[in-house]
Amino acid sequence: MIERLDARVGAAQHLLEFERVSKYFGNVIALKDVSLSVNAGEVTCILGDNGAGKSTLIKILSGVHQHDGGVVRVDGREVSFASPREARHAGIATVYQDLAMVPLMSIWRNFFLGEEPTRGWGPFSRFDSRRARRISREQLKLMGIDVRDTEQTVGTLSGGERQAVAIARAVYFGARVLILDEPTSALGVKQAGVVLRYVVRAAERGVGVIFITHNPHHAYPVGDHFVLLNRGRVIGDHAKGEVTREQLVREMAGGAELEALTHELEGVVQT
Amino acid sequence: MTATAPAPAPAPAPAPAADERVARVGVGARLLKRPDIGAFVGAVAVFILFSITASAVNWATDLGVWASWLNTAAYDGIVAAPVALLMIGGEFDLSAGVMIGSSGILLGILTTEHGWNIWPAIAVCIAFGLAVGFVNGLTVVKTKLPSFIITLGTFFMLRGLNAGLTIKLTGGVSINNIDAAPGYSTAHTLFASIVWPAYGLSVSVLWWLGVTAVAAWVLSRTRFGNWTFGSGGDAVASRNVGVPVARTKILLFMATSTVAALWGVMTAVQLRGIQSNEGVGREFEFIIAAVVGGCLLTGGYGSVIGTAFGAAILGMAQIGIIDSNWDSNWVYFFEGVVLVSAVMLNTAIRRRAERAR
Predict the structure, then answer these.
(1) Where are the domains of chain A?
(2) What is the pLDDT of residues A196-211, one digit of tens each?
(3) Is A85 within 8 Å of chain B by CB?
(4) Is the ipTM of this complex over 0.90?
(5) Domain A2-101+175-270 is in which class?
């Protein structure tokens, strides 16, 4: 943890930076003046409830949408990704909720899907399956998961293991910024804990992780700083030491609103 | 998959924590994971069945009998191999059967009506197969409509074209005398000769094995094979990770149509002519062979080797029923039974394999 903080201090510029970024869909303001920064080796949590603008933010980062105002910088250079492909080439990988994995295919086939290593030349160029098996096993081990058998189909893995395979794949293929879209939302408590460990592991390997979630309890233990979004605007930006879990929960839920809701719910239960 | 390469040596003495998990995958379970095991078991069962019922011949030991069902199996097996790839890629081609007739008729028209040498005519037939496959594939990819519907349309268009053109040009329902074309004898040697005269084994069996070997290699050993599994298993996920799904599917349609066109040429060369309804109904036998071979109707899973066993079952059924002195109409009944039991068996096998945890 100490080393990671030092790395941040030493960094001359941010790996990824948003400066007053806005996005409109017709007359709907999806994002307004959003500024944030992501550093290598850190976990940046983006917290927000439904409709806060998290999805729009991801889509701008991953090249699905283009921002309408403000500046996006990667390594200090201004960029605007025209397609997901461009974003990937810049080292920005997105692990979507649907995980971009094929359940009926084995782990090693999935790991290299679309990026298969080949051997031989011309018409005899073939998928180097031995290498694919070996590398996928090694990479998963580095992420701390010891798969029984890489021949196993992804469909037989648990939700947490699938996340791990997806994260390991993105890291292996040179992701410098890894965007995780609600990686824990569909998981049980125990599995979520497992995934959170992989999130930290990815950051320890020098990747700038953007962890998108609506659950402050998942964000707090792993995050290095926290950006809170509400209705398309940043309503809070804290480094780890500056904020407690309770503050985070409170701020995210809109404080007073949550209290009112709690009372209301208690009322419902009592009657 | 169908991988046979020696797997990297199992990790020597893994951590004790991993032990109880690794131990679960025994040899039996590993074997049962193969999508083609059901077809293999089925082929053995059908073989045993006919060695009992086909008492008129020496079913098990007479190589002449083997040759006759292998010849028949090749009839379904050649086109079933690319049909299996296409099905693993998540699509159907109902026009694959009628394409045989279209290609044969095209060969007949070019050689008998226009006096072409047979080789350029064959080249045109292959190009026609590539073109029809491309149109099928492009239409499916662009419209995002089910390929079942699109290729059903192609099926009926080609069927009408086959009958209409044949009647218009010859006044009958067949085109004959293809053997009068220059170059016919070399074409006959390559496509329709008997390679083992003692037993009457046709060269088409070698073509069947060749096409199957290439298709199996492509599926399990190339990037394209991985893309095929991905495109059929989850097209959206595959596209997200950079698989050219549209290109993969179009190429699979082209392979299917082209092999069907090749088989049309081979049929026309062998019969020295072609009927206008040639190949109609065959598309279902290709699909049966593929499904018996372990291919999932929804795509993403299957085996080319299994499909070859599926074709072998169909070949044995057609010959075995005659050799058992049953009425040949029972072939359809038998094929139906085989299809349903194979699907049930394969589903059970797959569920077992997936219940690894």
Answers:
(1) 2-101+175-270
(2) 888 888 898 889 999 9
(3) yes
(4) no
(5) alpha beta
